[in-house]
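Notebook, bench 3.
Goal today: get a predicted structure for Radical sam domain protein from Chrysochromulina tobinii so we can plan the truncation constructs. The sequence was checked against the plasmid map this morning, with no discrepancies at the termini. Length recorded as 242 residues. Pasting the sequence as submitted so the record is complete.
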Amino acid sequence: MYTQPQQSYRQKPLEEIASDLRLASELASAYGAPVRRVFLADGDAMGQPTARLRSILELIRESLPTVSRVSSYCLPRNVRSKSVEDLASLCALGLRTLYVGCESGDDEVLRCVQKGETRESSVEALRKLQAAGLRTSVMILHGLGGRALSAQHVRGSAQLILEAPPHYLSTLVVSFPLGLDRHASGFEAAGHGPFEPLSPSELLGEQRGLLEALEGLVPPMGSRGTIFRSDHASNYLPLKVA
């Protein structure tokens, strides 16, 4: 949805953010409902400079002192220019959890969907985030590679998770809001033939294959283990495994 004209990326002025936070504080006080969590919307806030993110987190602390957790989406490539020290400074100011949309750990699938990432870039980002003390939540999309690349999509995704175990792992099912043709074009150009979406039973097979490949997963730093969830509305089978 971020490719639509009305969703062009822009940085919201700090004065406007401060005004929003003051309003949230006033409403919380009026209703006796203190704000505990804040999500940095709308898209990937981690694409902003570290200094600006620090300013935003400081504004949150000043306006909403009851907040215990700030979270955000995070593309792996938006961590590349940030050092562990940069990320740790954000963690110290209240940033706690980053939702990393890896989608797949297979480089061929990632190329076909023009993700702009590789398994290695995702592994590097996850390790850096964890070294900074941040919790990571990874999202994998079942069905992303279609029937032709299903097996390697599962293998690559499992390898990604094994190389950089996150604190949370979520699986969703791929959808085609802009039409199947747009998604399929990358696979056809790469010589994988017509893109064939997976059936519900095949999607469940991917989920089972991923979980089987992750047996014996070593917990991430500072964690008791990776929590798995498939409770998104797109999933055919809701699961929660710790």
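The mean pLDDT is 92. Residues 14-31 form the longest helix (18 residues).
Flagging this for group meeting.
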